[in-house]
Amino acid sequence: EARRLGVNWDYAPVCDLDVEPDNPIVGTRALGGDPATVAELAAEWIDGCQREGVLACAKHFPGHGRTTRDSHAELPVVEASADVLYGEDLVPFRAAIDAGVASIMSAHVSFPALDPSGLPATLSAPILRDLLRDRLRFDGLVVTDALIMEGVLRDGEAAASVRALAAGCDLLLYPDDVEGVARAVEQALRDGALDAEAVRRS
Question: In whole angstroms, what is the distance from residue 186 CA to residue 193 CA?
């Protein structure tokens, strides 16, 4: 149905685990709470979607399932240990990568165990480059979650957009001020704050 309507990229499946009863954002969008089950279902969904010529998108990396705050309104912090994140939350994302998922969406969520700076994953090179690209060997598209969300807007939309690209995102989803973001990216390229070759590849 998506392809027949001219839609060639679907922002699904949700690979977050439904493990936190007070989570205000994941809930019934999740495929379940068991990492192995979510991994299996997500991989099947990706295969079915991409067989039909539509790109799939595993989200929200590295996992929005343990949050108790809404990233639309503020920056959630997940205090889980690295062992828990690697052993549970990342399992569906590994399966998505193994299934050949075309894209992964970042989370506007802070994971101190993965990046002690406290930056949201969308702005974190340790999470997007070191973990996602280097350790998990993902070589597809990385797209931000919506850039109108408060979880990523501490320094404003234009600054967040430039920092997201610098951290390893390829595409910027839903900025409110598209022209302002474009100007900021162009200025960052002129100033050398963004790597021109990396942006060209994106």
Answer: 10
User: Consecutive 10-residue runs of the chain (202 residues): their mean pLDDT?
Assistant: 96 98 93 98 98 98 97 96 98 98 98 98 98 98 97 95 98 97 98 96 94
Residue with token string 């699904």 = 12
Q: Whose structure tokens read 């299934």? A: 99
- Which stretches does DSSP call E strand in 16-102? 57-61
Beta strands in 48-152 (DSSP E): 57-61, 103-106, 141-143
Question: Are 174 and 148 contacting, i.e. CB atoms less than 8 angstroms apart?
Answer: yes
Q: How many CB atoms lie within 10 A of CB 49?
A: 21
CA 24, 26, 109, 142 dihedral sign is negative
Euclidean distance between the first and the last CA atom of the chain, given in angstroms as a whole number: 28
Phi first, then psi: what are they for 98, rounded to 5°?
Answer: -60, -30
Q: Give residue for tokens 């390829």.
A: 170
Backbone angles phi and psi of 96, in degrees to 5: -65, -45
Q: How far is CA 71 from CA 45, 83, 180, in A?
A: 25, 24, 23
Longest CA pairwise span in the chain (Å): 47
Answer yes or no: are the C-beta atoms of 165 and 173 closer than 8 Å.
no
Active site (catalytic) residues: 145
